[in-house]
Design a protein that fits this description.
By secondary structure, this protein is an alpha/beta fold. The chain has a domain of about 180 residues: Alpha/Beta hydrolase fold, catalytic domain (Rossmann fold). It has an eight-stranded mixed β-sheet, with helices on both faces. The chain has a two-stranded antiparallel ribbon with strand order 7-8. A hairpin with a 2-residue loop joins β1 and β2. α3 packs across α4. It is globular. This is Alpha/beta hydrolase. It comes from Phenylobacterium soli. GO terms for molecular function: hydrolase activity. Keywords: Hydrolase.
C-alpha cells in the first residue's frame, strides 16, 4: 500500500504480496510508482456516486478480541443477514466503505481492520488462527448473527486468504465465503529472512526497534502511496480516499512538530506465524471447503497470471469464479461498481 521497504525487483513475490515496497525511480511508470503525486496533496476529481456512497457514514467502534481492540465499521440494521468484509494486507476497514453502503438496505454489513492494520491494535505475533477468531468475535459483537443466519465472509487479497482459512477450518461460523482476487503462496522462511536483513540495511526503513518513516506533510505522504502488487490506480479518487485513511499523525524525528506516517504494523509480515499457511504452497493439494465458495477476480490481475502459469492453488476445482473485465488485483479501485454488481448477483442467486 505505501512505501516502507525495499525489495529487489528480481526477487520472487508471493501471489498476494500486497506488502509495501519501494522501487527506484524509473523502475515503474509514474502512474504506478506514485499515482497520487501529480495531485500535490489535493483530492482528484470525484464522481457523484462515490461522494454519495462515502457520505453514508458507518457506525464506527472497536471490538475486543484476544486482548486487542479491533476497528470495526458497520452499516445496515441488526437483524438483517450478515456480511463480514475483510481487507488486504497493510490496508484497513475503509477499503470497503464505498462498497458496503450498496448492501446496507438488505444486510447488516461490517468491515473490520485486521490486527496490526488500520486503527486496530498491533500484536507481538500474528497467526491465521487468531485472525479467524478475531473475525468470529467481530461477527458476534456487531450483530451479524442476529438475523438467524450465519454471516457470509467476503475477503480481498490477503483478507481472502484469511477467509479461506476460516472457511476450511471453521465452516460452522459462516454461511458462505467469497474471495476477491485472492492468491496463495508465500515466500520461504529463508527469503523472508533475506528481505529482513536487506531492509535493515536501508536507512528510514522500519524495524522492530525503529518506528515507521514520518513524512513532514500530508502531500509528501500521499506522494509515496502506491499499490502492491504494482499496478496503476484505476480510479485515482478511490486511491486518494484510501491513502488518506491509511495515515496517522506522528512526531517528526527532529522534534519540530508532527508529520504523517502509515497506520499498519511494518513488521506484520515478519511477525506472522506460518502455521496455518500450509495450504499456501499447494503441498497438500486441494483443500476441502464445506461451505459454498466463490472467487471474484480481475482479468488483468497478477494473481491470475501466476495461477495460469502453473502456480499451485488450494481452491477446489468446483469453485464458482467470476471475472471482472479491465481490472487488476485491486478490483474495488479499478472497477468498484462492477464489483458491487457481481456481489449483488452472487448474493441474490447463491448460495443455494
Amino acid at each position: 500500500m505505501a512505501d516502507e521497504a525495499r525489495i529487489e525487483t528480481e526477487a520472487p513475490r508471493e501471489a498476494y504480496d500486497d506488502r509495501p515496497t519501494h522501487l527506484e525511480p524509473g523502475e515503474l511508470p509514474p502512474e504506478v510508482q506514485a499515482p497520487l503525486a501529480i495531485y500535490k496533496g489535493a483530492e482528484p476529481p470525484t464522481p457523484k456516486w462515490f461522494k454519495d456512497a462515502v457520505a453514508i457514514e458507518p457506525e464506527r467502534g472497536f471490538v475486543e478480541s484476544l486482548g486487542s481492540k479491533l476497528e470495526v465499521l458497520s452499516w445496515g440494521e441488526v437483524g438483517k443477514p450478515g456480511l463480514l468484509l475483510v481487507h488486504g494486507n497493510s490496508a484497513h476497514a475503509d477499503w470497503w466503505s464505498f462498497i458496503a453502503p450498496y448492501f446496507a438496505d438488505d444486510y447488516r454489513v461490517t468491515s473490520m481492520s485486521l490486527a496490526g492494520m488500520g486503527a486496530s491494535d498491533w500484536r507481538e505475533k500474528y497467526a491465521f488462527g487468531d485472525f479467524a477468531d478475531d473475525a468470529e468475535a467481530v461477527a458476534q459483537a456487531t450483530g451479524l448473527y442476529a438475523g438467524g443466519r450465519k454471516p457470509i465472509y467476503i475477503g480481498h487479497s490477503f483478507g481472502g486468504g484469511q477467509v479461506f482459512y476460516a472457511a476450511s477450518r471453521f465452516p460452522e461460523r459462516m454461511h458462505a465465503a467469497i474471495l476477491v482476487d485472492t492468491g496463495f503462496g508465500g515466500p520461504p522462511p529463508e527469503e523472508l529472512e533475506r528481505r529482513k536483513r536487506q531492509a535493515e540495511m536501508v536507512r528510514n526503513i522500519p524495524t522492530v526497534d525503529r518506528p515507521s518513516r514520518v513524512y513532514p506533510t500530508l502531500e509528501a505522504a500521499l506522494a509515496r502511496f502506491r499499490l502492491m502488487p504494482p499496478q496503476p490506480a484505476g480510479n485515482p479518487f478511490i486511491a486518494d480516499f484510501i491513502a488518506r485513511r491509511s495515515l496517522k499523525r506522528a512526531p517528526l524525528p527532529d522534534g519540530s512538530g508532527e508529520g504523517w506516517t502509515w497506520r499498519f504494523d511494518p513488521e506484520m509480515w515478519n511477525k506472522l506465524t506460518r502455521s496455518g499457511m500450509e495450504f499456501s504452497n499447494g503441498g497438500a493439494g486441494k483443500v476441502k471447503v464445506e461451505v459454498p465458495l466463490a472467487h471474484i477476480y480481475g482479468a488483468n490481475s497478477r494473481i491470475i497470471e501466476h495461477r495460469k502459469a502453473g502456480a499451485p492453488s488450494p481452491l477446489p476445482d468446483d469453485v464458482l469464479e467470476i471475472e471482472i473485465p479491465d481490472s487488476h488485483h485491486h478490483v474495488m479501485i479499478d472497477q468498484p461498481l462492477a464489483l458491487v454488481a457481481a456481489l449483488r448477483a452472487l448474493l441474490a442467486a447463491w448460495p443455494h
